[in-house]
Protein backbone atom coordinates (compact mmCIF):
# COMPACT_ATOMS: atom_id res chain seq x y z
CA UNK A 1 0.00 0.00 0.00
CA UNK A 2 1.31 3.43 -0.91
CA UNK A 3 0.15 6.98 -0.40
CA UNK A 4 -0.80 9.18 -3.35
CA UNK A 5 1.16 12.43 -3.14
CA UNK A 6 1.27 14.15 -6.52
CA UNK A 7 -1.58 16.16 -7.99
CA UNK A 8 -1.33 14.15 -11.22
CA UNK A 9 -2.07 10.95 -9.28
CA UNK A 10 -5.18 12.50 -7.71
CA UNK A 11 -6.35 13.79 -11.11
CA UNK A 12 -5.88 10.36 -12.69
CA UNK A 13 -8.07 8.78 -10.00
CA UNK A 14 -10.69 11.54 -10.40
CA UNK A 15 -11.27 10.39 -14.00
CA UNK A 16 -12.54 7.03 -12.73
CA UNK A 17 -15.88 6.05 -11.21
CA UNK A 18 -17.18 7.41 -7.89
CA UNK A 19 -19.07 5.84 -5.03
CA UNK A 20 -20.89 8.47 -2.92
CA UNK A 21 -21.65 7.90 0.77
CA UNK A 22 -22.92 10.22 3.51
CA UNK A 23 -19.50 10.72 5.11
CA UNK A 24 -17.28 10.62 1.99
CA UNK A 25 -17.03 10.07 -1.75
CA UNK A 26 -14.74 7.27 -2.91
CA UNK A 27 -12.99 7.68 -6.25
CA UNK A 28 -11.07 4.84 -7.86
CA UNK A 29 -9.16 3.92 -10.98
CA UNK A 30 -6.68 1.39 -12.32
CA UNK A 31 -3.02 2.21 -11.89
CA UNK A 32 -1.39 3.34 -15.13
CA UNK A 33 2.04 1.77 -14.49
CA UNK A 34 2.05 -2.00 -15.15
CA UNK A 35 5.27 -2.41 -13.12
CA UNK A 36 3.38 -1.28 -9.99
CA UNK A 37 0.40 -3.58 -10.54
CA UNK A 38 0.73 -5.17 -7.09
CA UNK A 39 0.41 -1.87 -5.15
CA UNK A 40 -2.73 -0.22 -3.75
CA UNK A 41 -2.59 3.59 -3.81
CA UNK A 42 -4.57 5.59 -1.23
CA UNK A 43 -5.23 9.33 -1.19
CA UNK A 44 -7.25 11.47 1.19
CA UNK A 45 -8.78 14.88 0.47
CA UNK A 46 -10.46 17.17 2.98
CA UNK A 47 -11.49 20.54 1.53
CA UNK A 48 -12.06 23.83 3.31
CA UNK A 49 -15.80 23.38 2.78
CA UNK A 50 -15.64 21.02 5.77
CA UNK A 51 -14.40 23.74 8.13
CA UNK A 52 -11.28 25.30 9.58
CA UNK A 53 -7.93 23.59 10.03
CA UNK A 54 -8.84 21.93 13.33
CA UNK A 55 -12.04 20.47 11.88
CA UNK A 56 -10.33 19.33 8.67
CA UNK A 57 -7.56 17.64 10.64
CA UNK A 58 -10.10 15.82 12.82
CA UNK A 59 -11.91 14.51 9.73
CA UNK A 60 -8.58 13.52 8.17
CA UNK A 61 -7.47 11.65 11.31
CA UNK A 62 -10.78 9.76 11.55
CA UNK A 63 -10.70 8.69 7.91
CA UNK A 64 -7.01 7.80 8.01
CA UNK A 65 -7.48 5.58 11.08
CA UNK A 66 -10.55 3.88 9.56
CA UNK A 67 -8.58 3.19 6.38
CA UNK A 68 -5.62 1.91 8.38
CA UNK A 69 -7.88 -0.61 10.14
CA UNK A 70 -9.62 -1.99 7.04
CA UNK A 71 -6.87 -1.99 4.41
CA UNK A 72 -5.61 -3.78 2.39
CA UNK A 73 -8.59 -6.16 2.85
CA UNK A 74 -11.17 -5.14 0.24
CA UNK A 75 -8.83 -3.00 -1.92
CA UNK A 76 -7.64 -4.41 -5.23
CA UNK A 77 -3.92 -4.41 -6.02
CA UNK A 78 -3.10 -2.33 -9.09
CA UNK A 79 -5.76 0.27 -8.25
CA UNK A 80 -5.72 3.72 -6.70
CA UNK A 81 -8.40 5.09 -4.38
CA UNK A 82 -9.09 8.62 -3.16
CA UNK A 83 -11.42 9.35 -0.24
CA UNK A 84 -12.98 12.83 -0.37
CA UNK A 85 -14.36 13.78 3.05
CA UNK A 86 -17.82 15.20 3.60
CA UNK A 87 -19.02 16.99 6.77
CA UNK A 88 -20.72 13.80 8.03
CA UNK A 89 -17.27 12.22 8.43
CA UNK A 90 -17.00 14.15 11.70
CA UNK A 91 -20.23 12.88 13.26
CA UNK A 92 -20.57 9.39 11.79
CA UNK A 93 -20.01 6.67 14.44
CA UNK A 94 -16.56 5.16 13.89
CA UNK A 95 -17.69 1.52 13.36
CA UNK A 96 -20.23 2.73 10.79
CA UNK A 97 -17.51 4.78 9.06
CA UNK A 98 -15.40 1.63 8.75
CA UNK A 99 -18.34 -0.39 7.41
CA UNK A 100 -19.13 2.31 4.86
CA UNK A 101 -15.51 2.37 3.68
CA UNK A 102 -15.45 -1.41 3.25
CA UNK A 103 -18.77 -1.38 1.37
CA UNK A 104 -17.66 1.50 -0.86
CA UNK A 105 -14.33 -0.14 -1.73
CA UNK A 106 -16.10 -3.41 -2.55
CA UNK A 107 -18.62 -1.58 -4.73
CA UNK A 108 -15.78 0.27 -6.45
CA UNK A 109 -14.05 -3.06 -7.08
CA UNK A 110 -17.14 -4.36 -8.84
CA UNK A 111 -17.34 -1.21 -10.99
CA UNK A 112 -13.66 -1.31 -11.88
CA UNK A 113 -13.88 -5.02 -12.62
CA UNK A 114 -16.46 -4.34 -15.34
CA UNK A 115 -14.47 -1.60 -17.08
CA UNK A 116 -11.61 -2.22 -19.46
CA UNK A 117 -8.20 -0.49 -19.18
From TrEMBL:
Its EC number is 3.1.26.5. It is an enzyme of class 3 (hydrolase). Pfam families: Ribonuclease_P. The keyword Hydrolase applies. SUPFAM superfamilies: Ribosomal protein S5 domain 2-like (SSF54211). InterPro entries: Ribosomal_Su5_D2-typ_SF (IPR020568), Ribsml_uS5_D2-typ_fold_subgr (IPR014721), RNase_P (IPR000100), RNase_P_CS (IPR020539). Keywords: Endonuclease, Hydrolase, Nuclease, RNA-binding, tRNA processing. HAMAP family: RNase_P. RNaseP catalyzes the removal of the 5'-leader sequence from pre-tRNA to produce the mature 5'-terminus. It can also cleave other RNA substrates such as 4.5S RNA. The protein component plays an auxiliary but essential role in vivo by binding to the 5'-leader sequence and broadening the substrate specificity of the ribozyme. This is Ribonuclease P protein component. It comes from Benzoatithermus flavus.
